[in-house]
Amino acid sequence: MNPVISNDHAALELMRQLRQRRKELGMSMRIVAEKSGVGLRTVQRVLSGKEPTAKLTTVLAIAEALRVEVQPIEVASSHSVRRQQAKRKAAELAAMVQATSALEAQAVPQKALREIEEQIAAQLIHGSRRQLWSS
Q1: Would 16 be classed as within a structural domain?
Q2: Taken in order 50, 56, 61, 64, is the CA torsion positive or negative?
């Protein structure tokens, strides 16, 4: 399975940079297609931004033909991402507790529910990674 570049801001910016590089180099779309091994129409669609779900391998081949190095950027620290995941999962688990309690006519007060969420999040952060990321 090939990863796909979605039509988000970062992808659009990369396509803009590739278009600009092609123009700076004075390369025709045909030459980019030949050097990248990607079909001419695909190169045209990708560089025009009309291919919002271009395969990553396609974009990388075009970038290589244009001698553009594509490097991943870290948008958030790994700790921040784990913390967000723990909070999300803790909220889901606490909601299950709330739903179960409501069925028993013993609803958990909001303050207690937030405390439960915080405790679960802390346990998830410091516990098993598998438990943190499981569905």
Answers
A1: yes
A2: positive
Answer yes or no: do 56 and 102 share one domain. no
- Tell me which residue range forms the domain holding 55: 9-65
Tell whether 60 is covered by a domain.
Answer: yes
Distance CA 89, CA 71 (A): 30
CA torsion through residues 23, 28, 32, 35, sign: negative
DSSP 29-85: HHHHHHHHT--HHHHHHHHHT--TT-BHHHHHHHHHHTT-------SS-HHHHHHHH
67-71: long-range pairs with CB below 8 Å, 24+: 67/21, 67/25, 68/17, 68/18, 68/21, 70/14
How do residues 47-66 score in pLDDT, each as one tens digit?
A: 988 777 789 899 999 999 99
Instruction: In whole angstroms, give the CA distance from residue 35 to residue 66.
Output: 9
Domain count, the chain: 2
Residue 70 lies in a domain: no
Residue 27 lies in a domain: yes
What is the share, in percent, of the chain residues with pLDDT greater than 90? 37
